[in-house]
Design a protein that fits this description.
mainly alpha
C-alpha cells in the first residue's frame, strides 16, 4: 500500500504540474505543449472545443497503445494522469483570468512546469498520455531516455499544426519542447528518492 500511495502522489503531482504549465502559461499563447497539445490546438481551432477537453480526447485515444504495450496497470495510471491534467487545464481556464504576459517568459516557465510534470510521470513508468505513450514505449524497448523520441515525434506534429494555424508558432513550440524534454530527462534520471532519506544522520 505504501508503494501505491507513493505512486498515486507522484501521478497526481505530475498531472497537476504539467496542467499548470499548459493552462497557465502555454495555451493562452496557443503554444502547443507537445504532440497531444498540438492536436488539441487543432481540434480547438476547427471545432471550438475547450482546450482541456480537446486534450483529454487526444490523450484518451492513445490509451489503446498503453494497454497493448505497457499493460493494464500502466493504462489505468495514464488515464488518471491525463484526467488530472485535463481537469487542471479546464479549472484554470474557467476559474482564472490569465492576461497574456511576456510570451518568452511564459514559454520558459510553462516549459519547465511541463517538463517536471511529465518527468514525474515517466519516472514511474506512467505516460502523460498522447505522444508520451509512444515515447515511453520507445524508451522502454531501447532502454534509453524518453526525451529524444518525445522531441522528434512532437516536432513533426508541430510542423502540421504550424502549417494550418501559424508558422510563427513553430519556433516557440520547438523551443518549448527543447526546454521541457531536457527537464524531462533530468527528472527521469535524477534519483530523487534518496533526497528524502535520513542517511545523513548516521554520519
Amino acid at each position: 500500500m505504501k508503494e501505491f500511495y507513493r505512486k498515486y502522489g507522484f501521478v497526481m503531482a505530475g498531472g497537476t504540474i504539467q496542467g499548470i504549465g499548459m493552462g497557465l502559461f502555454l495555451f493562452p499563447h496557443s503554444i502547443p505543449s507537445g504532440g497531444a497539445g498540438g492536436l488539441a490546438v487543432l481540434i480547438n481551432h476547427f471545432f471550438y472545443i475547450d482546450m482541456g477537453f480537446a486534450l483529454w480526447i487526444v490523450n484518451f485515444s492513445m490509451l489503446v497503445l498503453a494497454i497493448k504495450y505497457l499493460g493494464n496497470a500502466s493504462a489505468l495510471w495514464t488515464m488518471l494522469a491525463i484526467t488530472v491534467t485535463s481537469c487542471t487545464v479546464i479549472f484554470i481556464e474557467n476559474s482564472f483570468y490569465t492576461p497574456l504576459g511576456n510570451v518568452w517568459f511564459d514559454l520558459v516557465l510553462g516549459s519547465v512546469f511541463l517538463g517536471i510534470g511529465v518527468g514525474f510521470l515517466l519516472r514511474d513508468s506512467v505516460s502523460n498520455g498522447g505522444i508520451g505513450v509512444i515515447a515511453l514505449i520507445i524508451a522502454t524497448k531501447r532502454e534509453t531516455l524518453p526525451g529524444r523520441p518525445l522531441f522528434w515525434i512532437n516536432t513533426s506534429i508541430f510542423l502540421l499544426t504550424a502549417s494550418i494555424i501559424s508558422w510563427e508558432l513553430i519556433v516557440q513550440a520547438l523551443i518549448s519542447q527543447w526546454i521541457s524534454t531536457k527537464i524531462v530527462d533530468i527528472v527521469y534520471y535524477y534519483n530523487y528518492y534518496e533526497v528524502y532519506t535520513f542517511g545523513w544522520r548516521k554520519k
